[in-house]
Write a structure and sequence with these properties.
The protein is built from eight helices and seven strands, in the order αααβαβαβαβαβαββ. It starts with a helix and ends with a strand. It has a seven-stranded mixed β-sheet with strand order 3-2-1-4-5-7-6, sandwiched between helices. The protein is about 40% helix and about 20% strand. It is of the alpha/beta class.
Length: about 200
């Protein structure tokens, strides 16, 4: 738990409670596979929280396709300075997210039920500094959903696997059409057992 204590600091108890909620309620409701439960800290919670290494202080963040709250919830626990919106279309998942936010007392988090591309969601969000996502869609489609929500000069940060280089090569035209600038691929959480690969696509000014 050394990594968790460093990343979450005074909010470690909240992170531990979130872990418990994922391992119990999240598993029974089908958001987390039973095989993933032993890996919740390393593969999910810590790997999502370190996304904060790529986000400046005091920004507004929309986490689209938030699912069980990854990466939005760990990010919110680790970075109370951020204002975070969890965007999730499915009722059962958005209900779980609302329960988690209430139980953990995350005053910096708001749950919005809907899809990122829907007019109602765009109206509720306005434009944000950063849009995050994890395992939501292929990069080109993801850029089409994410970048319209980002302020000019803001960033789309997507957690991706090793295929991100191929996705970027394949989807450059779609990214450019969505308003994306030159992408950067890097890792965060480099002291963790499994560092997180992130692609940063800036919104053109």
């Amino acid at each position: 738990m050394t990594h968790a204590a460093r990343i979450f600091g005074d909010n470690l108890a909240r992170a531990e409670r979130y872990h418990d909620l994922l391992a119990t309620t999240g598993t029974t409701r089908g958001f987390i596979g039973p095989r993933e439960t032993p890996k919740l800290w390393d593969r999910h919670i810590l790997n999502c929280a370190v996304l904060g290494e790529a986000i400046a202080t005091g920004l507004t963040v929309a986490d689209i396709g938030s699912g069980a709250g990854l990466p939005g919830i760990p990010l919110a626990i680790a970075r109370s300075d951020l204002t975070i919106y969890l965007v999730e279309p499915l009722l059962k998942r958005s209900t779980f997210l609302t329960e988690v936010v209430h139980e953990l007392g995350l005053e910096n988090v708001t749950v919005i039920r809907g899809r990122a591309e829907e007019r109602e969601v765009k109206a509720a969000l306005g434009l944000v500094d950063v849009v995050t996502s994890r395992a939501v869609a292929p990069l080109g489609k993801l850029a089409g959903w994410s970048l319209p929500l980002v302020k000019p000069g803001g960033h789309m940060l997507a957690m991706k696997g090793a295929s991100v280089y191929d996705e970027l090569a394949r989807d450059r035209v779609e990214i450019r059409k969505a308003g994306g600038g030159t992408a950067t691929i890097f890792t965060v959480g480099n002291d963790l057992p499994e560092p997180t690969t992130v692609i940063d696509i800036p919104k053109k000014r």
